[in-house]
Amino acid sequence: MNSMIAQASERLLRPGGLSTTELERVFARLMGPGVDAADLYFQHARSEHWVLEDGIVKEGNHSIEQGVGVRALAGEKTGFAYSDEIVLPQLIEAAGAARAVAKAGANGVGQPLAIRNGRALYRPMDPIDSLDSAGKITLLREVDAFARALDPRVTQVIVSVAAGVDTVLIAAADGTLAADVRPLVRFNIQVIAEQNGRRETGSAGGGGRYDYAELLANGRAQAWAREAVRLALVNLDAVDAPAGSMPVVLGSGWPGVLLHEAVGHGLEGDFNRKGTSAFSGRIGQRVAAPGVTVVDDGTLPGCRGSLNVDDEGVASENTVLIEDGILRGYMQDKLNARLMGTRSTGNGRRESFAHLPMPRMTNTYMLAGSRDPAEIIASVKRGLYAANFGGGQVDITNGRFTFSASEAYLIEDGRITRPVKGATLVGSGPEVMTRISLIGNDLRLDEGVGVCGKDGQSVPVGVGQPSLKIDSITVGGTAA
Amino acid sequence: MSAEIANIADKDASLAELERLAEVAQDVLRRCRAAGADETEVAASVDVGLNVSVRLGETETIEHTRDRSVGVTVYFGKRKGSASTADLNPDSIAKTVEQACAIARYTELDPAAGLADAARMARRFPDFDLWHPWDIDVERAIALGLEIEDAGRSVAGITNSEGASVQAGQALAVYANSHGFVGCERGTRHMLSVSLLAEDASGMQSDYWYDSVRSPGDFQPAASIGLRAAERVLSRLGAQSLSTRQCPVLFAPEVARSLIGHLLSAVSGGALYRKASFLLDACGKRVLPEFVDLIEEPHLLRGHASAAFDAEGVETRRSALVEAGVLQRYLLSSYSARKLGLESTGNAGGVHNLVVRSGPDDFAAMLRRLDTGLYVTQLMGQGVNGVTGDYSRGAAGFWVENGAIVYPVDEVTIAANLRDVYAGIVAIGNDVDPRSHLLCGSILVERMTVAGA
User: Fold this and answer.
1) Disulfide check for B429: which of A357, B13, B349, B442 has CB 3.0–4.6 Å away?
2) Which residues 327-386 in chain A show a CB within 8 A of chain B?
3) What ipTM, to 2 d.p.?
4) B9 alpha-carbon distance from chain centroid
5) Is there a contact between B433 and B258 (Cβ–Cβ < 8 Å)?
C-alpha cells in the first residue's frame, strides 16, 4: 500500500471500521444488470479562515465536512447518492439508491482493486497546523498596519487567510484505488481608498497547495498589500472607459481568465460529447491565430489548480488543447471519455463527495510568444490596455463571453496614458481567438486565486498567459 | 421563549427531525455554556432532495441528496469564534464547540460583537404555508422531465438539448441562541427546468426556462415550460451586435430584479459600515423615482424567502424600504446596526421577500413605452462596482423599433452609473416574475450606453 493510500484510509475508512475488503462488497451491491461503471469517493475536508477588518481580527471559523459519494453508471445514465456517515450500512444503502439507475442489461463485474499511483506535486500535510493561531493573528495585524502606512488615502483594510486540507480516497469498479491529500492556502487583502469624496477599492492575493511558511515567504503578503493599495489608488484617478470596438492589449497572468472563459469551458468533454459547444466537432481545425498554443496542465508543483490524481483517481496530465492555432483535444473525465471513445485526461473533478464529477479545468494557460510587451503596447494607435481583471462568464453554445477589467488604461499613439474605470469586454471566443495578433514573451501564471463555477459546483483553478494583443474586441464603457 | 413546533399543522417525519435538530442545538448551547461562553448561537439544518435529469429522451442522472450542517458561534465577552461540522454525532459536536471556543481565545475584542437584543427575538411563529413535500418517485420524475423536454423538442427548429431536470427539495432549519430563543423552520422548494439548442447558418444558440415553487400544485404546466424554452431559443437565432449608441433599455422581469438586487446590496449594513457603497447616507433621500415603492413582505404565503425571524432570531415585519422613491431605512443585522449606531432591521441574512410596486403596464405596454431601444433578456458577467455604482455588463436581447421587436441582439454591453440607472427608471411593468423572493416586473430605463461591434 502506498503511503498516500495508507494516510487516506486511516482518516476515511478506519474510523467507521472499514477496509478495502468491505469496499469490494459495496461494489458487489453496486454492480449488477446494466451497470457498466461505478465508483466510491471518500472525502474529509478540514478548513479554517481568519478575517481582520477595522484593524481587529474579528472573525475566525473552523469547519469539517466528510462523507462518501456513490455513483453507478449505465451507458449515459448516472445514478448518484451520498452519505455523510462513512459506515458500511450507509454505503450499502447509497449503493442501492445509485444503482437503481439501471434496470436491465449485461451484469457488470467489478475488477479487483489495484493501487494507481498519482503524482507528487505537493506535500500530503495539513497547512492549518503549519502556523499557530497567534502567528496568524500577528500576520493579519502586521499586514493591516503595513497597508495603512502605505498611503494616507487608505481608509479600510480587510485581510483574510484561509487554509484547508482535502483527504480523498477513490475506489472504482474498473479496479482503481487511489488517494490524495490536498493542502490549499490562500491570502487576500482588500482596501478602500478615498480622495476628495471619491472611493475606490483594490484587492490582491494568492496561494497554492503548500503551507503558511511558503504562503508568507519573501514578503509575499506585503507585496499583495502593496498591489491592493496601488490598484485602489490607480482607480481613484480613472476616467470613464471608452465604448465600442477597438484593439485591446491584455496583461500577463490573471487576464488568462479570458482563455478560461473564451475557449477553456468550450473544450470540456461533456459539452463536446453533447454537441452543445461552439467548438464541437472541430478537432484538427484552425480555431485560433497561428502562434496560439493553449494547455491545461494539472501537473504544476504547488499550483492551486494542480492535482496528484483527479477525483476519479486518474493522474493529472498536461493536455494540449490548441497547438499553433489548431484544436488538438478536449479535457475529459471517465464518463465522457468512454462515451466519446477516448481516454480520460485526468480532468474529472467535483466540488465534494456530495457532487457528481465532470470535466473541469486545472491550470489553463497560453504558452509564451516572442514579443516584448512594450512593443505590443507601442503597436496600438488607440485602444485599451487591460492589465487586470475581475471575473468572467461564458455561454458555451455560442462562445460569447464577458469579463470585467479591474485595472485598465487607454493606449494613445502607442503609449499608455490615463487609467479608465472598470470596463467590460464582450466577444465571441472562437472569433476573438482568431484575432490574436501579437503574443508576448512574458508568460505568467496567476497568483493562485481562481475559483471556477460550473453547474453550481466550485473548484480551485489556475489561469495564465503572456501579454497579448487582440485586434478588435468590444469594450463596454460609457464614454463615446 | 421557544418556538412552538406544534403550531405547524401537518404530521410527518419532518417534525420529529426538526425536534432532533432542536435537541442538537440545545445540546450545543449547554456545551458552550459549560465551556464558559458568555453568549452562543447555533444554526442546524438538514436538506433532503431528489434531482432527476433527462436528455434527448433518456434518463441522464438520478441524484439523492441529503446535506446536514451545524454551525456554532460563541462570544467570550466581545470576542467571537465560530466552527461548523456536517457530522451531527456527539463527538463531532463536542469537537466543533471546542474549535469555536479555541478560536475565540485568539480573535480580538470587537465592541459590536454579540447576539441581537433579546427583546427583539420573534415570539410568534405563524404558518406561511411553506411546507408542501412533493410525493414524487424517480419514475414519475423521469416521466415529467421527458414531458417537458419532449414539448420543447417537438417544436420545429430545435436541434439539440442540454436536458430537462426535475428537483424536489425539503429544508429543515433550527436557529437557537443563549437568550433562550429556539426557532424552527421547514420549507419545501421544487423546480422544473429545461435548456434547448437551435442552430442555423448564423450559428448555435441555447436558452432555458424554469419554474420554482413551494408547492408542486403551483407549477406552470410541464409542457409550457418546454415550449417557452423552445420559443426563447428560436428567437435568439441570427442575433447580431449593435453599433455603439445611447438608447433606452427595457429589462425583462427575470433580469430586472438584478437591478433591485444591486440596490439592496448598496443599502446593506455590511457595505455601509465599510463605506463600500455608492449609496452612503442615503436614508431619507431619493434613490428611485417618486412612483417607486419597495416593500419588504416577510410573511407572504408560499413566499420564496418568507420567515418569522431573521438569521439572528429577530422578528421580521412588513415594512417599506423605499417609499415614493425615498429610502426609508437600511438592511441591518445587529452587528452592522451597532457599527452604524442604529437598530437591527431584522435583515440578518438578507431581505425576506421584496415587492417592487408596479405600474399599470403589462409587457406589451412596456414595449410600446420603450418605443425604440434595447430589450434585455440576458445579462452576463460581474461588471458591477458596488463602491462607485459603475455598471457595465454583457447583455443579449432584442432591438425594438416603434414598440415592435425587430431582431435579436447579442455581444453588446450596457453601461451607466447605477445612481443614474435608478433615477432614470421610467416605468415598472406589472409582468411580475413570481419565481424569486424579489418580486419585480420589467423595468424601463430612460438611457444607457450600449457598446457593440
Assistant:
1) B442
2) 354, 356
3) 0.92
4) 27
5) no
